[in-house]
Specification:
single chain, about 130 residues, alpha+beta, 4-stranded antiparallel beta sheet
């Protein structure tokens, strides 16, 4: 199984959405080719009230740490108190998603680096 393939990330995104943090379809997985054509993992989230896209991505192929990148804005953004509150709530969800993806990556890396389970020899059952 490729590490953090588009399929793996989509399953993680759907699992996160099923927890009730985000509406279904809000979290989008984008193909991002890294070194040697490997999927490196890229997740896009469009904010509801602010015309800014955010991207979540792992630091490196072997790192479980994820980060959030906010696209630059061309214009100054003036927000009401209610809009700032809404933005803060959305950023809390982004933070939870980043933490979720990082936890899933830690588990996946541990599985990939753990030695295979020992199988009993044929005709030599375990006691």
């Amino acid at each position: 199984m490729p590490y953090r393939s588009k399929e793996v990330l989509e399953s993680w995104a759907r699992e996160f959405e099923s927890l009730g943090y985000a509406e279904p379809g809000v979290v989008k997985v984008i193909v991002q080719d890294g070194d040697e054509g490997h999927d490196t993992g890229l997740v896009r989230v469009q904010l509801t009230d602010v015309p800014t896209e955010l991207y979540l991505q792992p630091g490196t192929r072997e790192s479980p740490k994820w980060s959030v990148t906010m696209e630059p804005r061309e214009h100054t953004l003036n927000l009401s108190a209610a809009s700032v509150h809404s933005l803060a709530q959305e950023l809390a969800v982004i933070s939870a998603l980043c933490t979720f993806l990082q936890a899933k990556s830690i588990v996946l890396l541990a599985e990939l680096h753990s030695p295979p389970e020992e199988q009993p020899a044929v005709g030599n059952p375990r006691p």
